[in-house]
Amino acid sequence: MKKAVVGGVAAALVVAAGTAYWLMRGNAGAGAPGSGNSVAAGPATPASGLSASGGGPVSVTTVRALKKNVDVVLETTGTVAALNTVDVRSQVSSIITKVNIREGQFVKAGELLFTLDARNDEVNLAKAKAQLAKDEAALADAQRQLTRSKDLMAQSFISQAAVDTNQTLVDSQKSVVAASRAAIDAAQVALSYNRIVAPAAGRAGAINVYPGTTVQPGGAVLVTITQLDPIAVAFNLPQRNLNDALQTLRSGGGKVNAVLPEQMGRKGSTIVGKLQFVDNVVDPNSGTVRVKAQFDNADSTLWPGAFVNVQLAVRTLADAVVVPQAAVIQGPRGTVVYVVDAQNNAQARPIEVIYAAGLDAVVNGVQPGEKVVVDGRQNLRSGVPVAERAASATTGTAPAANGASGAGVGGMRGAAANDASAGDGLVGATVAAK
User: Fold this and answer.
1) Angle at Cα 427 formed by Cα 423 and Cα 429, nearest 5°?
2) CA 37, 43, 48, 50 torsion: positive or negative?
3) Tens digits of per-residue pLDDT, 336-388?
4) In 3D, which of 121, 119, 95, 112 has the Cα closest to residue 185?
5) Which residues contact 183 (CB under 8 A, 6 or more apart)?
6) Residue 258: CA atoms inside 13 Å, Cβ hemisphere, count?
7) Which contacts qualify for 332-337: CB closer than 8 Å, 24 or more apart?
8) Taking residues 421-433, what's their average pLDDT?
9) What pLDDT is stored for residue 28 in this prediction?
10) 64 near 370, Cβ under 8 Å?
11) Pairing of strands 307-324, 112-116
12) For 64-73, 312-321, 419-428, which range has the lowest pLDDT when averaged over its residues?
């Protein structure tokens, strides 16, 4: 009984295998030449309006290249520095009797700052004056003696030698009088050291002494006077811009803008000055040269030691062709932009960036008035048809909308693959767009 069941199952399997074989063979022959079920083979014809890559025209936004004059501006960071800073010290040993200024006060040149104990110098001056009076009296007596001796010699009462002796006495006494007058001048100079005045106009810093403080020559700083108006900003320029800086200096200093970082973007925050100094040596360690610009600072906007953003206009590029920096693509085969031709096809155009600043770039290789693709260039390759759309304020969402209106996700991937194989530098464009 078991043998009969096994045999039946085996027979059923053989029949099923044969049936399947004949069915497969019939399907394979359905499309063979000469069979009644043959179908014409060939590439599928793309639908109307689709590009050769399987998608429609790529949606992009464009701008026209402009022709205008562009200022070449060097941007760097500088440090505010006072044109004149003086550490005030005493020149004599004495005691402070009076402080005549307040901390932070603005002082004029020659204004009294400190008064010292001057009694000793006053006494020395009085002694010098008394000595001068004594020497002048001796000189007057010598001159009278000389006059009498000349009269006596005229009457032949004395010899010429006696007259010469009196003449020598007068001359020596004149020298004594001159020395006494010099001693008075020295005493007056020493007395003047007891009145410490401001050597220059500026703002007084912290006062380090008080009445009763003993001071010594070359000792501690009494106060520091810092000039704030005008004021300077020091910064470094690369060696390659040295000639530009020198040319600007020769032409009168040009225009230098300084803005405090915390005031960036505020109206009226830019302070305009002029280039005043270019150092005579390039720092071999950094490859930069130190320069200074001078600014009017009546309202004390700039403060010594503060950091500022500096812009130095060195020259002007006349009739330059300007395109947005967002349109420039940096790729492995060089720098390109996509230009829309008369047939509304995108063409990769090799360019040379001459100068870039802000949102604009001065380039060679594009003619004024040509349409340059700004948004949607990530979906382009040379020869792809484009459809221009109005510029959107939210450019960050434009690529996604563009892909949706074209061939869909699959079409975007195909276009990206074609651009990668063409080497148009889409990766570089993405980095530049950031």
Assistant:
1) 100
2) positive
3) 999 999 898 999 999 999 988 778 999 999 999 999 999 988 888 888 999 88
4) 121
5) 128, 131, 132
6) 27
7) 332/423, 332/425, 332/428, 333/423, 333/424, 333/425, 334/425, 336/424, 336/425, 337/363, 337/365, 337/366, 337/372, 337/373
8) 32
9) 41
10) yes
11) unpaired
12) 419-428
DSSP 35-59: STT-----PPPPPTT--TTSS-PEE
Tell whether domain 74-83+227-318 is in CATH 2.40.30.170: yes
Residues carrying CATH 2.40.420.20, the chain: 58-68+320-433
- Residue 11: pLDDT over 70: no
DSSP 8-state secondary structure symbol assigned to residue 99? E
**pTM for this one?**
0.57
Looking at residue 119, its pLDDT comes to: 93
Options 3.30.1780.10, 3.30.200.100, 3.30.70.660, 2.40.50.100; CATH for 90-117+196-226 is 2.40.50.100
Comparing 158 with 16, which gets the higher pLDDT?
158
Question: Where in the chain are all domains bearing CATH 1.10.287?
Answer: 118-193
pLDDT in tens, 84-108: 999 999 999 999 999 999 999 999 9
**Mean pLDDT, residues 171-192:** 95
CATH number (1.10.287, 1.10.3470, 2.70.50, 1.25.40) of 118-193 reads 1.10.287
Q: What is the mean pLDDT of residues 196-213?
A: 93
Fold of 58-68+320-433: 2.40.420
Nearest in space to 211 (alpha carbons), one of 97, 93, 88: 97
Q: Where in the chain is the domain with CATH 2.40.50.100?
A: 90-117+196-226
Assess contact for 103 and 349: CB atoms under 8 A: no
Rounded Cα gap, residues 227 and 84, in angstroms: 5
User: Do residues 248 and 314 touch, judged by C-beta distance below 8 A?
Assistant: yes
Q: Which of 429, 371, 430, 395 is nearest to 62 (CA)?
A: 371
d(CA 238, CA 106): 37
How large is the average pLDDT for residues 53-73? 84
**Structure token pair of residue 398:** 């434009």
Model confidence at 12: pLDDT above 60 = no
* Bridge partners, residue 89, by sequence: none
Q: What is the pLDDT of residue 16?
A: 56
Question: What is the H or E stretch that residue 396 is in?
Answer: none
Beta strands 346-350 and 288-295 are unpaired
